[in-house]
Each structure stands twice: as structure tokens, then as C-alpha cells.
Amino acid sequence: MTTTNKSWVLVTGASSGFGEEFARQYAAQGRSLVLVARRLDRLQALADTLRRQYRIEVMVEQVDLADTAAVVQLHQRLQAQGVAVDILINNAGHGLQGPFVDRTLDETLAMVQLDVASLTAVTHVFAREMRARGSGKILLVASLLAYQGVQNFAVYAAAKAYVLRLGEALHRELKRDGITVTTLCPGMSDTGFAAAAQQKITPALKQLMMRPAPVVRAGIRALQAGRISVVAGWPNRALVILTWATPRWLHQALMSRAMNG
Predict the structure, then answer these.
(1) Which pLDDT score, from 0 to 100, does residue 3 have?
(2) Cβ atoms of residues 56 and 48 within 8 Å
(3) How many Cβ atoms sit within 10 Å of the Cβ of residue 55?
(4) Are 93 and 119 in contact (CB under 8 A)?
(5) Phi (first) and psi of residue 35, to 5 degrees
(6) For the chain, which ranges sit under pLDDT 50?
(7) Residues 6+ apart with CB under 8 A from 21
(8) Max Cα separation, the chain?
(9) What's the per-residue H, E or C state across 77-134?
(10) 41 Cβ contact list (under 8 Å, min separation 6)
(11) What is the DSSP string of 186-224?
(12) What DSSP designation does 175 have?
């Protein structure tokens, strides 16, 4: 297949949650899609649905993004087919709740590998291609927890802080190359993340819970507008303001209570 002169949206972690919703919303815009995740059956089912509903072209790529060599190979396969990724939604990630020392080292490092190393690799290989073309858009998906360390989410919060700071730096660094970089910071959302992270849903979190669709809309609009970052939802923005306006001991205690009960 040769697809030169067609622009594409690539979505990582597209088999569920925010990734699936990004795919649906860009499909509704008539965009061609590259869907990337490990779960091939779910990717193929989503691709079939979007092809039928929106009459768009959808490519499916089963990739374990935790393997940085596989990231490079993905990019090489797409280049060989003339697939120019105009918009990168770097969404794939993983979280775990629990005391730092109670998790195995393998579990902890696997989270760092996917949330930090692999996200960096995906961003790097596609940003280089965009720079060569002189245009492109990249959305990095971080988290509200990027703004502070939270008890029982130590590594996840630290990883998402890395994503936010990376995105802020690249926003300015790549702007001169015609590339827009925006970071989306969702709060608690009904995406299946909590179950995968073995997370306790406290009463406070239930009140803050957002559906994926408005979070994804906020990310797409911010990327299109060229913003440096966006926090989805007014309650979550209020929490960020609280973080800026209060001592660390206070806002970290409040967030720990909200997240852990």
C-alpha cells in the first residue's frame, strides 16, 4: 500500500479509554487513522467500526510500546508505506496505586518504561519526521497528578510530571520547526484506568469523575489552538490553582486524602 500525500493521525493506546475516544473523535472529522496498541482484537474491532461509520482509512498496528526497538520499527514500517503522521496522540500509559515498597521492582520499572522511556521514544521518532516536513502536531497525555507527588502514586505521579515538563519544553523548542506540542492533563476519568491501576475510588473521586469524551475534546481543541497545556474540567483546574496557591504540605495532604480516602 502506498499512501503518499495523505496525512494521518496516529493514536497510541488506542484499544480503550482515551485512546479509543481520540480515535472516534478524529474519525468523526474524517481523518485517516493509525491505531496502535497491544490488544489486536480490540484494535481491529474499533477499526472496522470506524471504517463503516465514517468511511475513513484506518491502519492497525499491534505494537508493544514498552519495547523501544518496536517503536523504531513501527516508524520504519509507516515510512516504507508513505504514511506521514501529521498528528501524534501520545496517549499510551500505565499506572498503579499502592505503597512504593510493596510493589515489585519489575512492576515499578515496567511503568517507568512505558510512561517515560517509550513515550519519549515515540515523541522523538515522529518529531524528527515532522521537523523534516516543517509541520506537525503532538499531544502528550499526562495527568492531574503531574502537578504534585501523591501518596501511593509516587512513581506514576513522578512519571506524569516528566511528561508535563517534557511537553512544556518541547512546546517552545519545536515551535520554530513548525511543530505544535501540547500536554493534556486529565483528572479522574471513566476510562478503565482505575481498574487496571487497582485504584480505590473514593467518594471525592466519584464527584470528580469525568467521561472520556469531554476530556478528549479539550485536548483536541487545545492542540488545534496551539496551547502549551490544558487541564480538562473546571474542578481539576481549581485543584491546580490550589496547588499553586498553598504550601506543599497542605495540598499534598488534601490530594492524598482525595486519592486514598
Answers:
(1) 41
(2) no
(3) 9
(4) yes
(5) -105, 125
(6) 1-5, 194-195, 197
(7) 212, 213, 215, 216
(8) 57
(9) HHHHCCCEEEEEEECCCCCCCCCHHHCCHHHHHHHHHHHHHHHHHHHHHHHHHHHHHC
(10) none
(11) --SBSSSHHHHTT----HHHHHH-B-HHHHHHHHHHHHH
(12) G
**Helix (H) and strand (E) counts for the chain?**
11, 7
CA distances to 27, 176, 255 from 165, rounded to whole Å, are 29, 18, 20
Cβ atoms < 10 Å from Cβ of 114: 21
Cα 144 to Cα 55: distance, rounded to the nearest angstrom: 35
Active site residue 147: no
Q: Is 153 helix (H, G, I), strand (E, B) or coil?
A: coil
The per-residue pLDDT for 246 is 82
Query: What radius of gyration, in Å, describes the C-alpha atoms of the chain?
Result: 18
Q: Kindly report, residue by residue over 54-75, the tens digit of the pLDDT.
A: 999 999 999 999 999 999 999 9
Q: Which amino acid is at 8?
A: W
The three three-digit cell numbers of residue 57, written as one number:
482509512
The grid coordinates of residue 64 equal 508493544
The answer to whether 38 and 15 are in contact (CB under 8 A) is yes
Q: Would you kindly state where each structural domain of the chain is located, as residue ranges?
A: 7-201+209-233
Could you count the other beta carbons within 10 Å of the beta carbon of residue 241?
Answer: 11
d(CA 168, CA 175): 11
d(CA 185, CA 160): 9
Fold of 7-201+209-233: Rossmann fold (3.40.50)
Residue 68, C-alpha cell as written in the block: 523501544
pLDDT value of residue 188? 77
- Catalytic residue selected from 26, 54, 147, 156: 156
What is the chain's length? 261
The strand pairing partners of 60, in sequence order, are 35
